[in-house]
Backbone:
């Protein structure tokens, strides 16, 4: 059963959808920050934010996922902002979070050169003088970042470091999903300012929050992909009738509807969870990745010939499905956490 949302949360989703209708695609980020305050949602009021919860983040992520909006919400508003909060460094939060609440972009360099999003490892190492060495891959919105945070190993601990983006080499990476911006970051002795103490416990919670935002976006994308497919099957004629009227296709779309609804349930359950959030985040990551991949594959099949043309939206959703499945750890890497 999908957890219900309050009237305020439903209104937030409707407002985000309305803004995206007026300012579609990449043009939506500035209006969302200025008119809705999406960048400030997860930031406490004491640091210039709105002090909203994880459910509100998911509401926005779901709407952005529906339209595959290319914006720094997941990388900056969810991932990097949560990392700052988990650092426990009050001075750094007071200095950096008000700017992020207004829409400045932050990035978290975490995945190492092998692409591992491990909660026990960073993307490099730090010497005693906080000189950082290593290379981070799949850094969300790295080329847009005005604030760069780096997870690195130091003296048997994990540390979170603030690094000047101008002091490192950032290269935009080619991605299967053109609506998601990635970059690689070469550290090469870059000086960093350490924020807080051992970041290992905090990084695990950061991954849980990031997965909660990601799975909501996956559920939103799956829902929209199914809507587009159902609409098409009502229009396409075969043997003098819409193909959506054939029993075999009804069964297939009914199965997809179940997948979409269970994806919504799994995603929203993460926000409702307490101490069990880590396990539910892992379950949701596995299920929502599979659901979106299945729905988008069927989307291409049920669109027939036009579904295999690059210009059709089906391919955009298909690419998002396979790209999102790799973020923050591939589905099989989360399976051990599902049974903890």
Residues:
């Amino acid at each position: 059963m999908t957890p219900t949302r309050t009237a305020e949360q439903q209104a937030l989703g409707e407002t985000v959808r309305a803004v995206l209708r007026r300012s579609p695609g990449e043009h939506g980020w500035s209006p969302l920050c200025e008119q809705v305050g999406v960048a400030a949602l997860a930031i406490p009021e004491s640091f210039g934010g709105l002090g909203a919860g994880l459910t509100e983040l998911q509401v926005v992520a779901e709407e952005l996922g529906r339209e595959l909006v290319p914006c720094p919400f997941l990388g900056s508003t969810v991932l990097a902002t949560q990392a700052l909060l988990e650092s426990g460094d009050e001075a750094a939060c007071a200095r950096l979070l008000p700017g992020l609440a207004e829409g400045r972009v932050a990035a978290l360099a975490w995945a190492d050169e092998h692409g591992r999003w491990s909660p026990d490892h960073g993307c490099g190492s730090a010497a005693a003088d906080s000189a950082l060495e290593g290379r981070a891959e799949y850094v969300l919105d790295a080329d847009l970042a005005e604030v760069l945070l780096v997870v690195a190993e130091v003296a048997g601990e994990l540390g979170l470091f603030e690094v000047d983006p101008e002091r490192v080499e950032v290269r935009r990476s080619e991605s299967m999903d053109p609506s998601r911006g990635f970059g690689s970051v070469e550290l090469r002795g870059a000086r960093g300012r350490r924020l807080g103490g051992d970041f290992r416990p905090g990084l695990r919670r950061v991954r849980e929050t990031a997965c909660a935002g990601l799975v909501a976006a996956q559920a939103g994308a799956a829902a929209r992909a199914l809507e587009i497919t159902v609409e098409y099957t009502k229009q396409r004629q075969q043997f003098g009738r819409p193909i959506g009227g054939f029993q075999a296709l009804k069964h297939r779309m009914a199965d997809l509807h179940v997948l979409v609804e269970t994806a919504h349930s799994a995603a929203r359950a993460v926000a409702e969870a307490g101490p069990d959030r880590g396990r539910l985040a892992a379950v949701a990551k596995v299920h929502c990745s599979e659901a979106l991949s299945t729905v988008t594959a069927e989307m291409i099949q049920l669109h027939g010939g036009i579904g295999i043309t690059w210009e059709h939206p089906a391919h955009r959703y298909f690419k998002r499905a396979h790209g999102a499945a790799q973020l923050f750890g591939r589905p099989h890497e989360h399976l051990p956490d599902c049974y903890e």
